[in-house]
Amino acid sequence: MSATVSAADAWMRIRGLTKSFAGERALDRADLDIERGRVHGLVGANGAGKSTLIRCLAGVTTPDQGSVTIAGNELQMGSPQASERAGLAFIHQELNLIPHFSALQNMLLGAPKTTRFGMIDWKRSGVAARAAAERVGIRFPLDTKVSELSVAQRWLVMIGKALTRDASMIAMDEPTASLSEPESEQLFAIIRDLAAQGVAILYVSHRLEEVLQLCDRITVLRDGRIVSQAERGALDKKGLVRAIIGHAIRTPDARDRLAADRSRQPVFSARSIAWKQAVKDVSLDLYKGEVLALGGLVGAGRTEFAHLVAGLARPEAGHLELDGKRLDVANPSEAVKAGIALVPEERRSQGVMLQQSVAFNINISTLKLLRSVPGLPFLSDAKSRRQAESLVAHLGIKTPGVTTKIAGLSGGNQQKALIARWLNAGTKLLILDEPSRGVDVGAREEIHDAIRALARSGVGILVISSDVEELTLLADRVLVMREGRVTGELTGADITEARIIELSYHDAHDDQGEAA
Amino acid sequence: MTAETVPAAKEAPQPRKSSWKRTALIGLSRYGTIIGLLLMVLFFSINAPGVFLSRANFLNILSQASLTAIIASGLTYTLVVGEFDLSIGYVASFVGLIVTGLMAYEGFPIWLSIVCALALGSGIGVLNGLLVTKVRINAVISTLGIGTMLTGIGFTYSAFPIATGIPRAFTDISLGRIVFGLPNPVIIMVVMLLALWTVLNKTDIGQKMQAVGSNMEAARLSGIRVDRIKIFAFATAGFCAALTGTLLSSLLGSGTLAAADGYLLDAFAAVFLGSATLREGEFHITGTLVGVLILAVGFNGLSIFGAPTHFQPIFKGGILVLAVGMSALARRYAASA
């Protein structure tokens, strides 16, 4: 199936591109040919290496090994300027546009401009931009401020910007993530049109139907390697999913998966929670003793749901219940008081206080317990040290001492300290968002043990993870979310990597529905 | 489409670049300010033994330092929570004017005037805090705006210095020596600094302030009411500024427009010098005191050697840049270590 298209005349040749982060191979000897006039699809699960590949091409990340030749010339690695000169343009999901600049100003930003007496000649500079706008089919006036444009129109501006600089290849990351159906169709038409004009398109998306429909060739990445390349029509959706998951699926022993006792009152319930476009009608029940996990792709609305529960934002519809009582939290402080704690996704920016000690980081949410005399605000150093030391021992946090700065600990031990923060805080529901991200395998297992022990002791545990293997190892029950909705539930022996990924890409009920 | 599972080659963790040079640099950045202070004392003691090295002169230095130390400690609180207060100098001037006005024009008793003055300062601090946290105006802008307004309001209240009708007992507050023959401002400074140090290091709210300053998002997720903590810090800064303003009026025996404006720069210089003391770029009360002493000893030495007065701003500005530079370097080394 791995169709090796005659490589001799390929416009861009990527050879042996390799990049490791902290010993992990994010990209492993990737070979890829890209031709002008074709739409190249790039798919893979979270962490498969798509972004690393793109970032290497963009010159934002310098690969450890490998080369890229464009039309016979070697591309200088690690230089965004060199990539731009070579005609590569990159459009990221968050669209780097300046909102209060006009579409025209944005399109010309950073591009070489015609000047007269050292002043920018807007009229003449605009010529190229207008021509580009024509090609993309921009129908709104170019002096419209970007802040007044719709997301779809902003995409057109970004593409126009790329064309203004004569881009030969445009890479697009999840372009349809925030577009409506008709808008997406319009974008596809433009993409096909661009390809017909000789532009190479690198199209990254989680939406497989879209990729199958649009792309001339599809490349699948898994664990940093290119595992499959197929021409249009050579793969159907099932085959694509299989390629993304891989053959070697490790099946964990279904050993001690706890079947929730649904006759009892749930510890925590969500009823029809909705928020903006991110969370749509999410309902779930969490039972005593179980580890409930939310699976799905990045951007499926899981983190947003966690934020709604933890008081970082307020649901626009629906309600939450804790121990059968209705819950209305306006901010994280109220959530914590009610017994809901969040161990956030971004450990460094939202979790640890790096300049502070291990003890400080552990004790910060339980200061009231550490007073010398109850009622007076003075803290007892002895109590603080004792609590920190006992939690450090309990969770097996490896640190020279509790007064050591937490910055000196490994990621896994920092994460354990963040869990320790909530053990004495009267926590009824602990939400862990990506609990083992950036943590080595050994520490991951210890974190899993700690989480499971907490669940069995009666704390409600809600785990969010994009690491499918982690879900199969840790969860007693998995709810899979896709585009803001819960699309499936897996229990017991059904919790496998394949099932989770399948549900991440399409709903349980239209399982058989589509044949590409 | 073959996918043999080859475990990713684990690379050996890079050994940390550590050398005696780095250790020395970190040591220097930690103890540099204290060493500098001691060297300054040593230098003046050797070169002007009779004048510099006397009980009278040391008490003089301490008295001068006390007003700066109080206002700078308040400022330290706002910096601990990651904010800024540019209004403190103006608050001190304004409150210094009002406190004399309350006695001279309104006939308030001394104690009540002082209570009102301190409440006024704290209130302005709360206002600053609300503007920064609730309205979300950048602290530089809001505190500068409020401070500038205070200058004008002070002018409206009394364009001329208020010098008559101030009770003798009020001026005695700063001139008296009730405890151990130490000037009263020194005693007030010691009490204030002890209180502020205790709150910052030994209480709930102090820990929460440090948490907010270290990582605001993490603090919020830990259940800390970030806004309240910041408002408290601004209120403390306002209180301390009001105390310094009141003591200055007592020292001068009058309420004068703009009398305390210069404390702003002194306080900033001291706090940033302090942040490079003992710790790596964190703001703390002990450090602030060291910073204040460096300034006071420096000014004292300059005047002993008969340096023209225009040398003072050169020294002050220079030390501020030096302090911020050292603090930034210390932070960078701390981050890379």
TrEMBL record, chain A:
EC number(s) from the headed UniProt entry: 3.6.3.17
Alphabetic keyword roster: ATP-binding, Cell membrane, Hydrolase, Membrane, Nucleotide-binding, Repeat, Sugar transport, Translocase, Transport
Recorded GO CC terms: plasma membrane
Catalytic EC class: hydrolase
Chief place where the protein resides: membrane
GO molecular function terms listed in the Swiss-Prot or TrEMBL record: ATP binding; ATP hydrolysis activity
Membrane topology: Peripheral membrane protein
Descriptive protein name: Arabinose import ATP-binding protein AraG 2
Biological classification of the source: Bacteria, Pseudomonadati, Pseudomonadota, Alphaproteobacteria, Hyphomicrobiales
UniProtKB/TrEMBL annotation, chain B:
GO annotations of cellular component type: plasma membrane
Swiss-Prot/TrEMBL keywords: Cell inner membrane, Cell membrane, Membrane, Transmembrane, Transmembrane helix, Transport
GO molecular function: transmembrane transporter activity
Domain of life according to the entry: Bacteria
KW Transferase (keyword) present: no
Segments crossing the lipid bilayer: 24-46, 58-80, 87-105, 111-132, 139-160, 180-200, 231-252, 285-307, 313-330
Compartments where found: Cell membrane
Bilayer topology term: Multi-pass membrane protein
CDD domains, per database record: TM_PBP1_transp_AraH_like (cd06579)
Main localization (coarse): membrane
Keyword Metal-binding: no
Protein name as annotated: Inner-membrane translocator
Species of the source: Mesorhizobium plurifarium
